[in-house]
Amino acid sequence: MSVRPTRARRARLVEAIMKVVTGACVALVIGTALFVLGKIVAAGLPGISLDFLFSKPGMGMRAGGIFPVIVGTLMLVALTAVLVLPLGIMAGIYLAEYAPRNLLTRIVRLSIANMAGVPSIVYGLFGLAVFVLLMHFGKSLLASALTLTCLTLPVVITSTEEALRQVPTDLRQAALALGATRWRAIYKVVLPAAAPGIVTGSILGLSRAAGETAPILVTGAAFFLPTLPNSVFSQYMSLPYHLYVLATQVPNVPPEITWGTAFVLVAGVSVVSMIAAAWRSVQRRKVKW
Amino acid sequence: MVMSAVLEEVAMEAPFSGTGRSRTYAEGAEEISGSFSLTDVSVAYGNETVIAGVDMLVPSRAVTALIGPSGCGKSTLLRCFNRMNDEIGNVRVGGTITLDGLDIYQKSIDPVDLRMRVGQVFQRPNPFPMSIYDNVAFGPRTQGIRKREELDAIIEDALRDAALWEEVQNHLKKHAFELSGGQQQRLCIARALATRPEVLLMDEPASALDPISTQQIEDTIAELKDRVTIVIVTHNMQQAARISDQTAFMLRESMDQPAHLVEVGDTKRMFTNPNDKRTESYITGRFG
Amino acid sequence: MKVTPTETAGQRLGRTTRRRAAESVVRVLIYAAGLLSIVILLAIAVFLFVEARRSIAEVGLGTMLTGTKWFPTGTPKIFGFLPLIIGSLMVTGVALVVFVPVGIGAAVYISEFSAGWLKEVTKTVIEFMAAVPSVVYGFLGVAVLIPWVKTAFGLTSGMTALTGGLVLGVMSLPTVISISEDALHAVPDALRQGSLALGNTRWQTAYKVVVPSASSGIFAGVMLGLGRAIGETMAVLMLTGNAAVIPTNIFESVRTMTGTIAAEMGEVVFGGLHYSVLFSVGLVLFGITFVINLAADLVLERQRKRWRR
Ligand SMILES: Nc1ncnc2c1ncn2[C@@H]1O[C@H](COP(=O)(O)OP(=O)(O)OP(=O)(O)O)[C@@H](O)[C@H]1O
Ligand SMILES: [Mg+2]
User: Fold this and answer.
1) C64 within some domain
2) Which residues in chain A are closer than 8 Å to B143, comparing Cβ atoms?
3) Chain A contact for C153, CB < 8 A?
4) Count of other CB atoms within 10 angstroms of residue A41
5) Full-prediction pTM beyond 0.95?
6) Facing B116 at nearest CB: one of A171, A173, A179
7) How far is CA C236 from its chain centroid?
8) CA A182 to CA B35: how far, in whole Å?
9) What is the pLDDT of residue C233?
10) Complex ipTM value
11) Do C255 and C221 fall into the same domain?
């Protein structure tokens, strides 16, 4: 009888200590994130002006703005979206609606999971060998967009499949019972119902793609270009690569230009994808079938 | 010779081709169509046979109620009528089911065509996430009807038949999810009726609804039954007695043997004077 | 309203055939898209190999893998991968020391101790951390961590394996935390209640019951974090100084496999030997991450099956 309270007290003490230790881990994570965000906002915001956003870099990128850089990034992302969305959504439909439960499907899933873990620089090598050289697209928007398509595909597939699985079977059956074919039921009923999830998942994937540097480094991003790209076979400037260049390749860049570029990149990529993620979780909770 | 072969082929396709038979209720009323005949029907999920040896007739333009304890295979049998079992995977249906003499499981039959003739209403209301109008228009649009006036007319008819028109005629563009549960279920009935089916399958259509909505659904069924064949699954004995003309009682006596049909017959007779002891005890609520 | 009488049998039949044809076309497209991921993954392996062939033939895989010197532009050219492989492993090792304890600790706190609102906050924070591009982490490291490492450890340069590893550790945290948290979350509450009812504290429950039950998921999270760290390019390229010498401790500059490819691909002659050697580096990298990812996925699959029962 007398042993138990001591042991219980010790257990209580260990629990308190471990709560502090694990809590400190959470605090560390949150602190790091706040530091990243705070530093970029504090140092980057002062450099932001309409002039910065809408003018060309000058004086060896040590002055002026980042207009062509922003435009190049947007063009790259748009082209990637055009390529990856149809493929990714169709593959997601395959997994959620058509795939039989067999070895082949298992291998497809394994491949998708594995693609998500392939290093981005390896995608860069692949894009260089296949799109730039073998297909003769050269270092270009198109070669980069195709490379980013491969890289983004797993994200789009996974979120499409997940969104489709949230749609109750009832709806499919109702459509089939009305004499709709399998595809009509999917296209007219299931896909629209899953659209919010697919859209936010795709935004998440595309914004990650917008922040990638390594794959575009070897497939088409330009160090500096005086003009905007005028076709999919042009080279282009891009925010993440530009930040890399400013931070490591060009000496004596005024800090507000480098930090301003970092700010625009983080605002464009991280904030957009966070809003998408938040919206998705709200949506998930709201839609009760 | 050739001519007769062609004719035979046309005749085979006839029920799906629209020749000689109108989908319009008013015109089709004098024709006898929408009757099922089941011979030795069995259903297996994988290796487990859950229903066996079902023989019955489903008369045209009447309400047939399927009753039986939970898990005896009522929904499974119902899904045989419009081949929805095909969509589940690893389901085998044996025996013969004919719709107006046509074997609906023969190779040349496209289940998609069949389902335009045999509609279904599910246990839980399942409107599509779109407007009331688009919900009801789904079936006709699937059949290729695009003209606005034509669609409008079909939708009004269907909503009237489902006793929902008065309530929604001014809100057709409203999202279907804004309707109450009972209204949603009547919308689903309207949606099924808009394809002009000859048969309407209903799987416990009122079990998720309040008494008033249930009453409305039952009224709708009474309205419809002289124009369309109805097969309804219900757990509610009073409901079966009130609305059906014929009742079929299914029972699975133990888990290691499949369910079978204990008794089929005129509802009044079955509820007053059942032939089988098991029917009597089920109806009077002694088991199930 | 007449729906069908205006149509002939032939017309409706025609529609059925057309509908069937359309349905099969769609089906073919969808199956093709479904199989695309297998094709791409295979294509990556095949093309890495095709481009690496020349270096394998001229230098030899064994020579490259065991060579201790990386001197690609000198005379003679020397292509030994060991400095790069050891550089990658050292940076990853530092990252591992950061993200394993912090990541698992945070996941345990979030799943076992934290209030609902904190869960939401940490979820958002983790999403933010995952969304920040790696070049931004690299840039912050250049601006903040390099000077700090230099003064804190009294070094001549702040570009070290330690610097890169610390940043990689932070970058891998979101992966580790979210997958571990999922695994902990998947443990049925009944197990927790059973343990609490036996008089265990929440920590004892977490330590003795929940974490062991979720161990395979946590392991998978660590593996995926590891994969992310080994494959990460920009941050290490910007932070480790890129000296291609076998390092002896974490305060030295290192050159990783990823950094080498990124830094040197811009200067090589396409199709040349150096180009081909870089593809061999890529092939090694692909092989390592492939094995890691496969292991993680198999473990995750087993865990999924476990709780489905
Ligand atoms: N998709 C399926 N796969 C395997 N077995 C099934 C499936 N659907 C139903 N069953 C089995 O078939 C039997 C009959 O099921 P069914 O749903 O037809 O019963 P029911 O009479 O409609 O029951 P309830 O009154 O509860 O709706 C049950 O034993 C059930 O376990
Ligand atoms: Mg049922």
Assistant:
1) no
2) 179
3) no
4) 14
5) no
6) A179
7) 14
8) 27
9) 95
10) 0.91
11) yes
